[in-house]
Design brief:
The protein has 5 helices and 34 strands. Strands 6-9-10-33-32-34-30-31 form an 8-stranded mixed beta sheet, covered by helices on one side. A 7-stranded mixed beta sheet has the order 25-24-27-22-21-20-28. The protein has a 5-stranded antiparallel beta sheet with strand order 17-16-29-18-19, with no helix packed on it. Strand 9 and strand 10 form a beta hairpin. It is elongated and about 65 Å long. It starts with a strand and ends with a strand. The N terminus is likely disordered.
Amino acid sequence: MGIDIKQLGRLGSAIAAIGASGIIAPAIAVSGYGAIGPLGPQLRLSATSLLVTQKIQDSIIHHDQGVKGNMPQSPPQSSLEYTSAQQVKITGSAQLTALQSARDTSAKGGSPQAAPGSIPGVEQRRQTVVVDGIGFPTDSFTVDLRRSNLALRPIWTTPSTVPGLTPLTTLAAQWQAAIAINAGFFNRNNRLPLGAIRTNGQWISGPILGRGAIARSDTGEIYIGRLALEQTLTTESGQQFPIQAINSGYVQAGVGLYTPAWGAAYTPVLDNETIVVIAGNQVVRHQAGGAAGSSTVPIPNNGFVLAVRAYRAAVNAMPPGMVLSIASTTIPDIFDAYPHAVGGGPLLLVNNTVVLNPQAEQFSQAFASQSAARSAVGKTADGRLMMVTVSPQAGGRGPTLRQLAGIMQALGNTDALN
């Protein structure tokens, strides 16, 4: 996923875009207008290739005294990729090269400078943050979403379908984004989304595994925390079945829910699924899915389909003509006040305290201990959104997740999400 700042009017020339080859699943978006001089219909910035037309003076922030919270030390790793058995979050060497070439490496010291001519309510910074004695180059945008000219929302493959991957700059362009940053994860094998995407209160893809998410209210307030969704399917005869996930590439035995937000049709993800088609809350028919990827089932505009995997009792309880209902509970319920959300993970900071626990969000140990180029989002003490990319130190590696938490604290965030 990425974060997209969507244009509401003409944008100034202080922020320019350079191409990036990274592939992402969904993203988040912010809208902005009112700067000096147009630069075409929109500006696009990928998560790891931020560039300004005027040099920004580098500054150095030291955070060697450590970070708040109790955390085990992570062993250093040499990998520069985010990988795990089931998912990947791609940054890509081409993007890192573009970011390094854009950096003004000659300037040292001084205070961070905001880019002149930028969008009102948006500040751009370039800083070196020192954590554990290592200086990590960072680029950041700090956005006041409470301003009427700015808005934040998720973006994904296309407005009409969820599956598939798109280069970040392409994704930002098709959604008319001013600024974009990658956000969530996808299934490495089938390229389906893994994690929360919600816009205007509608689940485009549901959260999984209680992982971290960032959410925005209609008034521009931000909330960052771990997010879960419990959904229960009830038949008119009173039988109940848990829904494993909504519009998701995270699949296991049970019942998966796919709505028109997924796209016009559903293609079985696993072998031998039973597809239950529902229109107007009533079961229309069952269809054997066969081999994974071998067939498609149209999703009714006034209904949904259920992909039932190795759960014969559920299939037998939903014969054609059966009326169904679905109840949903968001955990914690504070997320109900924030109709726009996107997942990521793991969670880094809450109330200025490190809460990093990759295992609690079911990330692999290999993922949790890697050193890599990273992107993160945070909330500052005054309630603004901060979007951050972190490059490897010169000739070295990127930060670990623990070091990323320290970087986000040093930049002034009280809450943060990888």
